[in-house]
Design goal:
It contains 5 helices and 8 strands, in the order ββββαββαβαααβ. A hairpin with a 2-residue loop joins β2 and β3.
């Protein structure tokens, strides 16, 4: 089931359109002709029982996986028609992800992990580093900036995930990104 809250913005052009999306893994059919349309600024929640295809749908709409059939348009771009390099560049520029696991890169410090999305988006390293430092400081983690993920507690890992989410939201507000996809904890 998909819930929407349009906040009175139905007049805006769609930000995301998924049409007749099918996806199967072997004999198991996960998505069966699903269609979805989300306007810019609209909040959509995809809910349902475990195993019903929520994560699969988010992976397809977020371009992490390809459907067997169907179309996905983001900001009017047919993302399934893009080659792998152009798709990766598009994903980095227009889509932010929040995963149900922390997915911090083990070889990088906490500060670097929070900064990476901004750096990949081509923003100035010093600006991104300063913003990430401020975010982590506001979360009470300024003493852990140089620690690797293996040196952080479970709670600290969660706070670093919050800092990355906040960083992505700031990028959306500035117009640096247009979409944010998230899975349940």
């Amino acid at each position: 089931m998909i819930f929407f809250d349009s906040f009175g913005i139905d007049f805006l052009p769609p930000l995301l359109i998924g049409t007749a999306i099918y996806k199967r893994y072997g004999d198991l059919e996960i998505l069966r002709g699903l269609s979805i349309e989300v306007q810019k600024g609209q909040v959509a929640a995809i809910v349902g029982p475990s195993g019903c295809g929520k994560s699969t749908l988010l992976h397809v709409l977020g371009t992490l996986d390809r459907p067997d059939q169907g179309q996905v348009l983001i900001n009017g771009t047919d993302v399934l028609a893009l080659g792998s390099k152009k798709l990766a560049a598009f994903r980095n520029r227009h889509i932010g992800f929040v995963f149900q696991f922390h997915h911090l890169l083990p070889e990088f410090s906490a500060l670097e992990n929070v900064s990476i999305p901004g750096w990949l988006a081509g923003r100035a390293k010093s600006t991104v580093r300063q913003e990430a430092t401020q975010l982590l400081d506001k979360l009470g983690l300024s003493h852990r900036l140089d620690h690797k993920p293996s040196q952080l507690s479970g709670g600290e890992l969660g706070f670093h995930q919050c800092a990355r989410i906040t960083s992505i939201i700031f990028q959306i507000e500035r117009g640096d990104r247009s979409n944010l996809f998230g899975g349940h904890p």
